[in-house]
Amino acid sequence: TSRQSPGTYPWRLNITATVFWVGEEPTERNPVANHKSSWDSAWRENFGGFDNPDPVCRTMDFRPKTFIPRQNPFYVALPYNDVSKGEHKAEASRVIPWFRREYTGKGQSVCKGRWVQIVYNKRSCFAQWEDCGPFTTEDWPYVFGNKPPVNTQNKGAGIDISPAVRDYLGITGGTALVHWRFVEFYRIPRGPWSKYGDNNPFVNSGLGAGKKSLQSREDRLRRQQEAIQRELLKDPAKLRRELQG
Fold first, then answer.
1. Which residues fall within 8 angstroms of residue 75, CB to CB, at 6 or more apart?
2. What global pTM score does this model have?
3. At what angle do helices 208-234 and 236-244 cross, to 10 degrees?
């Protein structure tokens, strides 16, 4: 990990990424079918179809050719699920940095839909956390701490990326070493990741995570302005100079 700037979280450096996709059938590399996710029992249906990873079956704006996805095609999986059997896990409120801010109710994930920045070969991409893996859903010391992934399969993979993320970053093999970190929504620039999906705050402004992040930013700016005004009121001469300027 490394130091962070406001609205971001520490980097996880040199992490092996593997590619997965909505609708993927079980394989030796990925033993679980991706017709559903850890948080969505009808993931393929809600996404809109099979997110075909074949590059010839994808458009220039990084989506499948055969349909317009109903969810953001820029998605990832990380090896932790904050919910089990309808309850938040015991450590969730303690280890997830944004837990208390984003909590909406018993058993409602505060991880699903969170934004991640992925860097490969000096190119940067943004995506939403929509599934859990690879291979485990318990590795919070890596996802939120400073430990390496506990998984040892697929070269110790610590993040799964979608075909859209793969193609935007220019990854051509089945695995790649990437850097990734969590990023608050208000820090994310527009790009191909802001175009599609009812789960995407760029498209659906009423979503909790994006809405709360924007409100937090507005509250912070308002507090800064109020602090400046209080300081100016303490010094009438400075206030006159500011008004005249």
1. 22, 127, 128, 129, 130, 131, 162, 164, 165
2. 0.83
3. 120
Return d(Cα 158, Cα 14) in angstroms, integer.
Answer: 10
Amino acid at 161: I
CA-to-CA distance for 113 and 129, rounded, in angstroms?
A: 5
∠ CA 72-52-200 to the nearest 5 degrees? 0
**What DSSP designation does 223 have?**
H
Residues pairing with 18 in the sheet: 160, 175
Residue type, 70: R
| pLDDT tens digits, 4-42 | 677 889 999 999 999 999 998 876 666 666 889 999 999
Cis peptide before 141 (omega within 30 of 0): no
Ramachandran class of 153: left when φ > 0, alpha when ψ lies in -120 to 50, beta otherwise:
beta
CATH of span 12-204: 2.40.40.10
pLDDT tens profile 158-182: 999 999 999 999 999 889 999 999 9
Instruction: Please enumerate, as own/partner, the contacts of 149-157 that have beta carbons within 8 Å and a separation of 24 or more.
Output: 149/15, 149/16, 149/79, 150/79, 151/79, 154/16, 154/18, 154/29, 155/16, 156/16, 157/15, 157/16, 157/17, 157/18
Dist. CA 222–CA 215, nearest whole Å: 10
How would you classify residue 151: left for phi > 0, otherwise alpha for psi between -120 and 50, otherwise beta? beta
